[in-house]
Each structure stands twice: as C-alpha cells, then as structure tokens.
Amino acid sequence: MPQSLNQLEERLQYRFHDAELLCQALTHRSHSAANNERLEFLGDSILNCSVAAILFRRYGKLDEGDLSRVRANLVKQQSLYEIAQTLGVSDFLRLGEGELKSGGFRRPSILADTLEALFGAMYLDGGFEAAYAVIERLYTPVLEHVDPKTLGKDAKTLLQEYLQGHKIALPQYTVIATHGAAHNQQFEVECTVPKLDIKVGGSGASRRAAEQAAAKKALEEVQKMPALAKPKAEKSAKAAKKRAAKAAASEAKKAEKAASATHATNATHATNATQTTQASAPQVIEPKDAKDLKDSKDVKESREPKDGRDAVAGSTAAPAMTASSHVVPRGTIASTDKPADKLSEKPAEKIVEKSSEKPAEKADGAKQPPAAA
Predict the structure, then answer these.
(1) Which of 59, 191, 275, 298 is the most buried (most CB within 10 A)?
(2) Any binding-site annotation on 304?
(3) In what residue span(s) does the RNase III domain sit (predicted)?
C-alpha cells in the first residue's frame, strides 16, 4: 500500500483490513470503471444514521423537527466538503485526466462524495460500529460550535424570531433596484426595522437571495444593540429565579409528605404495640368442672325454701289439682265426629253438675252413709 494511504488512515484513525476498499473509495468515475459511486450510496445512508444517533444522544430536549433540521445541515455538501478538506482527502484522490486538468480535486461535490464513499468502505470493512466511531470523532469538534436552535435556519427566519422574542414588529423588505438583462438579473432589496431605526440593503441573483442578504446584515445590526441584550438577560434572571422558587416549593412539599408518612408510621407502630401487649396479657380461665359445679349449686339453692313459712306457702300456694278442676268427665263428649252444633246443644249447667259430683266422692276418699229412710 502506498505510504500516502497510510497517512490517510492515520488521519481517519482507522486501519483498513481490505486495502482494495480504501482504493475504490478514493477512485472517481472519471478514472476507471471500479469507482466509488456505489460506496458513496452506501456511505450516505451510514452517515445519516450515525449523525441521527449522535444528535439523539447529544440533544435530549430537541424535538423531531429540530433534530431533522440540524442533521440536514450537518450532512449537506458544504459540511462534508469542510471535513474532507480537514482530512486532506484531495491529496489521495484518483481522478481522470480531464478532472485533473479542470481542478476536480478542489471541487466541493467530488470531495463530499469521496468522504461518503470512505464511510461506506469502513462499514464493509469493519461494520457499523467502526464507521460510527470515525463519524462521531470527525463531527465532535463541529458540534462544539453548533447552536442547535439556529443551525440550518436562514437569515430571514433568524431575524424574525429574534424580533418576535423582543416583541418588535417584523421587518419590511422592499425591492429598490434591478440590474442586468432578463437572464442575468441582479436584485437590490432594502430591509427596514422601523422601531429600531435600522435600514440596510442586500443584493442577489434573485429577489429571495437579495432578501436573505439584507436580512443577514439587519440581524448583525440588531444583535449589536445592548438595549436588546439587557432585557434578554433580565428575562433569563427572572426565569432562573422562578425555577429556583419552584424547586424550593417542590422540596418543601416532599419534606411535608415525608413527615406525614413518618407520623403515620409511628402511629401504626404504637397501635400494633398496644394490641400486642393486650394480646399477651394473662387471662384467668375458670376450670370447666368447677364452673359446672357452681352452676348446679346455684340452681339447688334456688330450689330449697329459705324458712318454714316458705315451705308452708309452697304447700298451699299451689293446691293439688282435683278431679273437679277443669277436667271433663269421661263420656261427656262422645266423639269429635259429631257436628259442632249438636255438641253445643247440651246445657252447660248439666255438664258442670256431672263433673262436680263424681270428683267429690273421690276427693273425700270414703263413701257417704245412706240417708235414713
């Protein structure tokens, strides 16, 4: 391998296992059939994926639109051309005679395409991780000087956002002159910011290009004004103070919640301790046999008379049931099969007389002597 290619590997900080891939990546289509166009196609995808991953990790607060805008600016031809110049890729190019004579080794498009072809060759030689490591190393110095909020935005957009941020009316663009033939015109545009008393001009091959040139000059003038920088600093200070107050309030709220949780925990422990103490206290359990004995003794005492009067009262209080008390003599009611109306026809007096005669004899316990004739 030529010594010059070893120098390029040192600048890339990557050593190729397949030297033919490196040679093909440096070969322009004007040189031979085995050129770098296919490697350029592959390297373009590897570059976009790698830069997207780098931005995703580096700028966690950027939304999808801003990430896409920054990536587009980093992988555009001008950015790749600047990196290729830093590596000195033009010293290793393999060009045809026509490109050499026309200065193709200095052309931005050729250098940018060659750098993408190198990324594709690294991917085939060492895998995605190897290519990603080289791309990340090359773009790290670039990202150190990049403002993701403004990168990729044109001068008119930046001027408009700056003025809106300070509550100033939008600028006015006026075409003041047009020069040249119809196919090669030059436009002159004046940009005016009435409130700031700014009036600058710009020129370009189209009206839009002239407006961009004028907006760029106006933006430079606006950013030099200290009166606009001071409110911005004050606004930043107020925002910082507000964030600090919000953080302090959040900490106080957390401390209050922690104290409440501690108090609740202590109360729970105290309740559990009380319940444990009550549960562990000894309980006097009366033997079953002794309890039954006591119950039977109480029943017995309640049945025994307390004195003689209670005994007499007990004997006379409930007279013995005689045959005459609420007893219906046998044969008084013949059968329940008879109708109720026939049963009720018998006089109640006769039933009572019969029922009171026979039991009287039984109660006396002896027969009465016959009456004297």
Answers:
(1) 191
(2) no
(3) 5-127
